[in-house]
Amino acid sequence: MKKIFAYISVLVLATSCGDLTSLNTDPKKAAVVPGEMLFSSAEKNIFDNLASNNVNLNVFRLLAQQQAQVTYISESRYDLGTRNIPQAFWQALYRDVLKDLSAGKLLINADSALLPADKIVKQNKLAIIDITEAFTNFILVTCYGNIPYTETMNYTKLDPKFDDQKTVYYDLLDRLKADVAKLDVSQGSFGSADIIYNGDVASWIKFANSVRLKMGLIIADIDNAKAVEVVNDAATNVFTSNTDNARIQYKTSQPNTNPIWVDLVNSKRKDYVIASTLVDPMNATNDPRRPFYFTLAPDTTYKGGVYGAGNVFASFSHVSAKVTAPDFEALLMDYQEVEFLLAEAAARGGFSVTGTAQEHYDKAITASILYWGGTAAQAATYIAQPTVNYTLLAGTWQQKIGLQKYIGLYNRGYEAWLEWRRLDYPIFTPPADITYDNIPVRLTYPVSEQNLNKTQYEIAATAIGGDKVTTKLFWDKP
To answer: What is the rounded CA–CA span in Å between residue 341 and residue 361?
Structure first.
């Protein structure tokens, strides 16, 4: 009996050893991933990262003073290093967005497209991927300054150089212009694999031009000639209504739920209240968006907490149930933002945009109020107030547009912080014992770059004027 058992064991062992390579195959993972799926993944990841309310990843609502903290107040006092937040955001965009886009581009590029129509679809897909790459790099370069760009996704480069921020920025402008020229509306692109526009090429053209419009105005203070060139070319085909918004519709079931629901509701955490920086000017003008933005405080008013100080959670307004719903959508860019950009172009002068600053300003505010659930009548009443009306309101165009755009960019922390940095309005309230000049205007480089790419990190830090949160980037004119 022992001999029979031993013989069977040898046969089983011999059979098993004949295919040892199968042990290296994970049956739960796909061996080949279509490029279209990688594009979908990248799209969702960029939305998730920018929409997140997780303090370990995204602190831009805090930097923009849309929210104030309760028990843990380090981040609103500008301690961004303890949780290594700059590294988390950096890795999320490079690893989870740009890497997927790069791999998806390679796979789609390798597909043979024999029919003329197929070649156009392939070209459209590659152009849309490039637009998404350009937008992601735009976030990185306006967040950090000099960044790895030309040598990223090159696995032979273990110490990628940091490219000059202005050079990167201008190259992104060139890429977006070229991508718009490549897009052909006679054919489709990704179809349902595109979770933003469902493969609609005309919508991607509008999005790319709207981003170009934005990027052109960001450099208007340091290179007006280039700004005029970009804006005049792009402004002829940008967003014209809220139906153009670059959005993702989240679902009611995980893992495709709204990240804010995950961070604030499902986690049962009570870390934030709304900051008075945002609530107070909205109260002063009876802003009709308040019930869509915030909850009422116990005293039945909209009440903001003190920024940079510990606040009692139960005493103040919180993020509304609308925003924390599991299926609430997220935005990359929207119509009201475009109208504020056109208002700015008209106010600056020298740009060939049609309409006056007030006309675009009014359209922007109206679009925002309608988007959030208000009515046209409420928008008209709100705009007519002397404290809102563009013509009657005292101050510079930066003050007028800056405040209203800041309010309109609620729940879009990165964009609100970006606009504050370049327009210098509204006036923020720094935390106690911290001066205004110490409010962060960039994120520092990740610790991983300091440790693993030290030489290139040191070159980059020196080039931008020091790896500090107070170092202004090239477009942020003092």
So the answer is: 9
Single pTM value for the model? 0.93
pLDDT digits (tens, 9 = 90+) for 211-241: 999 999 999 999 999 999 999 999 999 999 9
What whole-number distance in Å separates Cα of residue 69 and Cα of residue 305? 8
Length of the chain: 478
Which uninterrupted H or E stretch holds 248?
strand 246-248
Domain residues of the chain, as ranges? 38-255+327-464
Element (H, E) at 35: helix 35-51
Q: Express as a percent the part of the chain with pLDDT over 90.
A: 90
**Tokens at 310, concatenated:** 């510990």
What are the tokens at 165? 């921020």
Using alpha carbons, list the distances in angstroms from residue 271 to 63, 303, 308.
15, 16, 13
DSSP tag of 58: -
Residue-wise pLDDT tens digits, 26-38: 554 454 679 999 9
Q: How many Cβ atoms sit within 10 Å of the Cβ of residue 117? A: 13
Q: What's the CATH fold of domain 38-255+327-464? A: 1.25.40
